[in-house]
């Protein structure tokens, strides 16, 4: 029997509470994608977040809305969920600057937490 070791998930800031507000189908997709990341695999909806090393985003759609979950995989031995949000900008696919700033702050927090371990 093969045992797969899963990375522990650490939710930074309000990321878990925000995810709980998403539609069920989005929560299911994000949850499965994070489970794949815990196994060291990549979900087909996960892609590297530009401007960051070892940080990925999952993009999921529901009706006319887009939801994103951002997580870091190269911060020690844990998987850190940095931000989950409904994309509000209607123009383009770029992540809005306030969200990028929050991701940067939470990434620093995750790195600090990892050093304390």
Summarize this structure as a short list of keywords or feature phrases.
117 residues; alpha+beta; 5-stranded mixed β-sheet; 34% helix
Indicate the topology:
Elements: E1 9-11, H1 15-19, H2 24-38, E2 46-48, E3 55-62, E4 65-75, E5 78-87, H3 97-116
Parallel strand pairs: 1-5
Antiparallel strand pairs: 2-3, 3-4, 4-5
List the uncertain runs: none
Q: Identify the quaternary structure here.
A: single chain
Reported for the largest beta sheet, the result is: 5 strands, mixed
Order of helical and strand elements: EHHEEEEH
Tell me what the structure shows.
The structure is a single chain. This protein has three helices and five strands. The protein has helices at residues 15-19, 24-38, 97-116; strands at 9-11, 46-48, 55-62, 65-75, 78-87. Strands 1-5-4-3-2 form a five-stranded mixed sheet, with helices on both faces. It is globular.
Summarize the structure.
The chain has three helices and five strands; from the N terminus they run βααββββα.
């Amino acid at each position: 029997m093969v045992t797969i070791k899963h990375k522990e998930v650490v939710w930074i800031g309000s990321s878990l509470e925000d995810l709980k507000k998403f539609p069920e189908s989005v929560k299911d997709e994000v949850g499965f994608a994070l489970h794949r990341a815990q196994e060291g695999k990549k979900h087909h909806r996960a892609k590297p977040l530009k401007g960051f090393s070892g940080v990925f985003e999952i993009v999921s759609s529901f009706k006319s809305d887009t939801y994103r979950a951002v997580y870091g995989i190269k911060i020690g031995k844990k998987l850190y969920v940095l931000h989950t949000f409904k994309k509000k900008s209607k123009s383009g696919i770029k992540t809005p600057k306030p969200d990028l700033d929050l991701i940067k702050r939470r990434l620093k927090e995750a790195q600090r937490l990892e050093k304390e371990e």
